[in-house]
Design a protein that fits this description.
This protein is mainly alpha-helical. The protein folds into 3 domains: 3-112, Fumarase C, Chain B, domain 1 (Orthogonal Bundle), CATH 1.10.275; 117-211 and 225-364, Fumarase C, Chain A, domain 2 (Up-down Bundle); 370-464, Fumarase/aspartase (C-terminal domain) (Ribonucleotide Reductase Protein R1, domain 1, Orthogonal Bundle). It contains 20 helices and 6 strands. The chain has helices spanning 5-8, 22-28, 31-34, 38-54, 60-78, 91-103, 116-152, 172-197, 216-222, 232-237, 240-267, 294-318, 332-352, 360-368, 374-383, 388-405, 414-418, 428-432, 434-440, 449-464, and strands at residues 157-162, 165-171, 199-200, 227-228, 274-275, 357-358. Helix 4 (38-54) crosses helix 7, helix 5 packs across helix 6 (91-103) and helix 7 (116-152) runs antiparallel to helix 20. The longest helix has 37 residues, at 116-152. The two termini are 53 Å apart. The structure holds arginine.
Length: 465
């Protein structure tokens, strides 16, 4: 080990004549939050050292010393033995300084041919790539749970709404598959974003590239990147890949938030369509009867901060001249919090969705309320030769009668119905029932139970592939 004092000297201290102001040191430091990148920082450094040795900038012995030293630093961090130092500013300089403490002068050679600017851009991409893969798995788990529930509830009838007013009967399975489709698009956006995350900036150095004979293709290969980036200035400066991820996240959260809103409504005494298991709810400290749907509420609430992070990053980027600026240090906290929030919300949902229990009788009663088969009666009249506008008028009158009498269309007698139109026959009751109504919508994308089951089968295939 070399002299401890060495580590407290700034690696960039050469041209400075006074120490950094104590507040400025804390103000400019990122180590408090970027230490979470330690694993990816070390992985990147090992690949960089391996490449430097392959092109002859380091000897094999130096490379081995560096790799072993980095492994020891990593072990220290993971064992909680690492003292992070604010005066060493960030994760990169902390690790490099500790490496030099351990292996001496060779540690100082690691930074040859790179800069913290391309190093940090590489670290974030490696970090985000890993987190994207975790998020993709969790999203798939939620999707699989939705498909199981949709299959179970393929024949369950509920009211479908527009304007939150009863519109037409739908199957609960069909409704759940609408949520599934939104998540499919979210998953596609995530994978598309991953393609642009998985490009390696390392080698851009500070901004202009480096004079050493580096082999960027080799480093990219070692780190599992699809390729090295094309332009050094762009590589160190843009954070569009993080913005894209946050944009994916904002849309996903917006979808989960809408889903949450429905779960909250449905668990209310007024709707009473579903039951959430107690383990996903909490009580009230004052009202003993309460069982609150906290998980959906909180997911709905957390959507605000994720949307906010997207706006933070867009705003962070918009005024920056090329190339790297310290502004970019501010990319991390919004990105990290977005990752954490999305992972938490997806886990809660993936655990909770399979445990949703439909109160099928309540759903059916609600579907019958509100004249949900009125459109079916109009369609019936059209099939019997009545023009649609006239059919609409006839059914409107029948509904007005039903409202006055507090009776659904299906509860009227044939004589009452023929009073509105003489083309109506006994077969009208086939379409006025809830089951007749949903079964009649038997086409791709329709609400019929058969279609729901077929859609689940197709979706399972896609999810597996
Ligand atoms: N902590 C910095 C960041 O997060 C690392 C890069 C610093 N580069 C520099 N030239 N000061 O962006």
């Amino acid at each position: 080990m070399t002299d401890q004092n060495k580590t407290s000297e700034k690696p960039w201290g050469g041209r400075f004549s006074e120490p950094t102001d104590a507040f400025v040191e804390r103000f400019t430091a990122s180590v408090g939050f970027d230490q979470r990148l330690y694993h990816h920082d070390i992985t990147g450094s090992i690949a960089h050292a391996t490449m430097l040795a392959a092109v002859g900038v380091l000897t094999n012995e130096e490379k081995t010393q560096i790799i072993e030293g980095l492994a020891a630093v990593k072990a220290d961090i993971e064992a909680g033995r690492f003292q992070w130092s604010v005066s060493l500013e960030d994760v990169h300089m902390n690790i490099e300084a500790r490496l030099t403490d351990r292996i001496g002068i060779t540690g100082k050679k690691l930074h040859t041919g790179r800069s913290r600017n391309d190093q940090v851009a590489t670290d974030i991409r490696l970090y985000l790539r890993d987190e994207i893969d975790v998020i993709a798995d969790e999203l798939a788990r939620l999707q699989a749970g939705l498909l199981d529930l949709a299959e179970r509830e393929a024949g369950t009838i509920m009211p479908g709404f527009t304007h939150l007013q009863t519109a037409q009967p739908v199957t609960f399975g069909h409704h759940l598959l609408a949520w599934y489709e939104m998540l499919v698009r979210d998953g596609e956006r995530l994978q598309d974003c991953r393609k642009r995350v998985n490009i390696m900036p390392l080698g851009a150095a500070a901004l202009a590239g480096t004079t050493y004979p580096i082999d960027r293709a080799m480093t990219a290969r070692l780190l599992g990147f699809d390729r090295a980036s094309e332009n050094s200035l762009d590589s160190v400066s843009d954070r569009d890949f993080a913005i894209e991820f946050c944009s994916f996240a904002a849309l996903l959260m917006t979808h989960l938030s809408r889903f949450s809103e429905e779960l909250v409504l449905w668990t209310s005494a007024q709707f009473d369509f579903i039951d959430l298991p107690d383990r996903f709810c909490t009580g009230s400290s004052i009202m003993p009867q309460k069982k609150n749907p906290d998980v959906p509420e909180l997911v709905r609430g957390k959507t605000g901060r994720v949307n906010g992070h997207l706006v933070s990053l867009l705003t962070l980027m918009k005024g920056q001249p090329l190339a790297y600026n310290k502004d970019n240090q501010e990319d991390k906290e919004p990105l990290f919090d977005t990752v954490d929030t999305v992972k938490g919300c997806l886990k809660a949902y993936a655990d909770m969705v399979p445990a949703i229990r439909a109160k099928t009788e309540n759903m059916r009663i609600a579907a019958k309320r509100g004249f949900s088969t009125a459109t079916d009666l109009a369609d019936y009249l059209v099939k019997k030769g009545v023009a649609f506008r006239d059919a609409h008028e006839i059914v409107g009158k029948a509904v007005a009668f039903g409202v006055a009498e507090s009776r659904d269309l299906s509860d009227m007698t044939l004589a009452e119905l023929t009073g509105f139109s003489d083309v109506i026959g006994e077969d009208v009751f086939d379409v006025l029932t809830l089951d007749g109504s949903v079964q009649a919508r038997n086409h791709l994308g329709g609400t019929a139970p058969r279609q729901v089951r077929a859609a689940v089968a197709r979706a399972r295939n896609n999810l597996a592939g």
